[in-house]
Amino acid sequence: MPTTYNDQFFVMDPGNAPAAGTALTVQNFDFIDQNDDGIIDTSNGDTFNGLTITSVWVNDTITVNVPGQGNVTITGVTFYVSGGPAVFTPTDGSVLQDATFVSSTFVNSSTQIPVGSFGPPCFTRGTLIATPDGDKLIEDLKPGDLVLTLDHGPQPLLLVSRNTFPATGRNAPVQIRKGALGNDKDLLVSQQHRMLISDWRAEMYFGVEQVLVAAKHLCNGDTIFVAQGEEVEYFHLLFDRHQIVWAAGIPSESYFPGHAANQADKDTRAEIDRLFPELGKKASEGWVTARPVAKQFEAALLN
User: Fold this and answer.
1) 55-106: per-residue pLDDT in tens?
2) Which of 13, 75, 240, 244 could lock 86 by a disulfide, CB 3.0 to 4.6 Å apart?
3) Contacts of 207 (CB under 8 A, 6+ apart)
4) Is the dihedral of CA 211, 30, 122, 101 positive or negative?
């Protein structure tokens, strides 16, 4: 059945940019994944604000001037729709603010994009991550530190990035109460962050022993729920491949490298390219997730 999502947008087209200095106002709109396959594309009648999406331009960028911050470059996706204006939304975890337009870049090939690309998949400050030397606070980790992984033992971190967001709407974290998934203490992750489910439900519903499920799809209104607040600091842990790590004693994903290499903000992308040029090459060859990923309608079976 169709699934409706709501997100932040600028009504503008990086490929047909407005004049420098044009005011851009943040607006929220609904878009619909008509066949609930977790992909927004042009072949299944997916819609934006009631209009059919005709093109999906992934990795467009805009540079805007935000009062009090200066120029900010945002990587995102532009939707063209039938009978309506083009719209742009971030895929790099940015939270849009009212701003003035400075410049843009644009891609030349329409494609498709996973719904999960619209939210930042990450941990929060205070999360304890398992390392060969015991649990360490995520904010104390740095590139080169070894982190325990489920599949490949201790692995060095390539990059630790962090961003602070208002803890509202799609950027509000999911609270996983102690014991809800076997965790030994409360855990906060972003809504799109995927947890590893390894019990009988994975085998019964998905035919595999383990499956990754977005935290927001595990919400039950009791022990797992979206926790609105004032501000949240998110952290990405990037390895040379997608890994399963332990946070608060339970397994969940690292930052998906294909997503990181292709859709990260420009500063993070530049740092990855500079420090780890082999990562960009591998990303172009195609990354795979460490485990199968449950779609939203599939995840509903787990609750």
Assistant:
1) 999 999 999 998 887 898 888 999 999 999 999 998 765 668 899 999 999 9
2) 13
3) none
4) positive
For the record, the structure tokens of 111 come out as 């494609």
Number of other residues whose CB lies within 10 A of the CB of residue 36: 16
CA 11 to chain centre: 22
CB 57 within 8 A of CB 106: yes
Closest CA to 270 of 192, 159, 196, 151: 159
Specify the DSSP element, H or E, that contains 62: strand 51-66
Query: Which of 282, 100, 123, 113 lies closest to 189 in space, CA to CA?
Result: 123
Q: Identify the CA nearest to 170 among candidates 98, 90, 246, 250.
A: 90
From residue 145, alpha-carbon distances to 155, 162, 247, 262, 268 in Å are 8, 16, 16, 24, 18
